[in-house]
Amino acid sequence: MGSLSLDGTHYPYPSRRTVVYARGGMVATSQPLASAAGVEVLRRGGNAVDAAVAAAAALAIVEPTSNGIGSDAFAIVWHDGKMYGLNSSGRSPALLSFDALAARGMAEMPTHGWLPVTVPGAPGAWAALSERFGRVSLREALAPAIAYATDGFPVAPVTSVNWRRAVEAYQSRLRGAVHDPFFKLFAPGGAPPQAGACFRNPDAAQTLKAIAESGARAFYEGEIAARIDRFAHETGGLLRASDLAAFAPEWVEPLSVRYRGYDVWELPPNGQGIVALMAFAILEGLDISAMSPEERAHVEIEAIKLAFSVGLAEIADPAAMRRSPSELLAEDFVTGLRSRITSEALMLPPSRPQPGGTVYLCTADGEGNMVSFIQSNYMGFGSGIVVPGTGVSLQNRGHNFSLDPSHPNALAPCKRPYHTIIPAFLTRGGKAVGPFGVMGGFMQPQGHVQVLSQALDLGHNPQAALDAPRWQWMSGKHVLVERALGIEAIQKLVDRGHDIEVTDDPTPFGRGQIIWRDGHSVLAGGTEPRADGAIAIL
């Protein structure tokens, strides 16, 4: 049985940060300003849910390269000793269909523009969480984000790099008046802001105020919805006010598997959390702790490949799935997958889709409440569409629909696509240990497996688990590996038949946060060294 170490003595690799401890409350995000926003709300009497809403809204402003008001969101909430799941992902427009694509001369789902835009769920998530569990008003929770948007904020270093990369890519790919508002907002004067430069988004401030005053209804039924509808009509989009008005977040039951004496929790489809659960179930039957770094990486890669071979074929809007989550997690099914692992790399057919653009955060208060929250555009800024007068950049989650009519995830009207963003949670004996997550498109289940294995199989603390070198399975036998894994382990993976690509770029390996609580109510937090991450404490 694995043990969970929360002390500061176990570091498998040179750590760039140290584990953080607190009792009164903790907020871990990829941006110091967002972490500060969450703790500010805790100080004003809010709980962990209020802090999560505050941090999420702040991230929508200070890290627009990954998320925004036009994002989707998912959450796992531990409140008063019980667990709750929230799916706030939007559906496709009622007018989106195979015929609509064909009428526009599209043979594949585009990555940008109006066609991949689905209804944004993030504002609905903030309002639903605040209404059900919050202690302060939504207005108070969104106040820090409104201040950042109104007064401006200094752009963080990693965010500035991603901003520049995204703008350069969009400038080379996106054409037409539909994208002019995007460049006007995010590349004023033709260039993105540099690190340390102050950036303001006053239109987003007004949108946040309307969301705060109306409990998000203004976004889905009021003036903001009307602006979105009007711009779509003017520029060839299919999203309508009726699509926005039909949206509602859905409370769902999280799924779990046992791993090393702990219960690992993920949300059910349309998210890909079940890929991580299948991988954990496969690895539960193997003694990872006794393996060399190369052996451990090999079996984890193989488990992920096998889990994805199922997930990419099966995950969709639950109403369209051919097999239920319980079937995919059944012991005999998982045993069959595990039996396919050998000493050699497997060749599996599914390819890896596009990378994502996401933020993950977690929060905890002094009363035992904890939140695992994830919010995302897709592919950086998303669709490349900013609705004039709103400051809202719309996501492009519809790109993940399949254009195979026989696939469960086939494009259809009013349908939720396969979703990459997944929050996670750890419990033991029915008690909360705490939230964790790793953002990054299809890296996310892979990050969950690697980080939790570092903690439960090797006994490393949350920060050390996040610091450890990572890999990402890309497709077939192709695996991207951080150089810090070590030349010997890398060569042995090559010897096993893996097609290894070594990189010093941290971007592909996701960005994680962890807050875990020990038996004495002490919180231990880790934040991502590959980002501008920061932990704020009360």
Automatic annotation (TrEMBL):
<dbReference type="InterPro" id="IPR029055">
    <property type="entry name" value="Ntn_hydrolases_N"/>
</dbReference>
<dbReference type="InterPro" id="IPR043137">
    <property type="entry name" value="GGT_ssub_C"/>
</dbReference>
<dbReference type="InterPro" id="IPR043138">
    <property type="entry name" value="GGT_lsub"/>
</dbReference>
<dbReference type="Pfam" id="PF01019">
    <property type="entry name" value="G_glu_transpept"/>
</dbReference>
<protein>
    <submittedName>
        <fullName>Gamma-glutamyltransferase</fullName>
    </submittedName>
</protein>
<keyword id="KW-0808">Transferase</keyword>
<dbReference type="GO" id="GO:0016740">
    <property type="term" value="F:transferase activity"/>
</dbReference>
<dbReference type="InterPro" id="IPR052896">
    <property type="entry name" value="GGT-like_enzyme"/>
</dbReference>
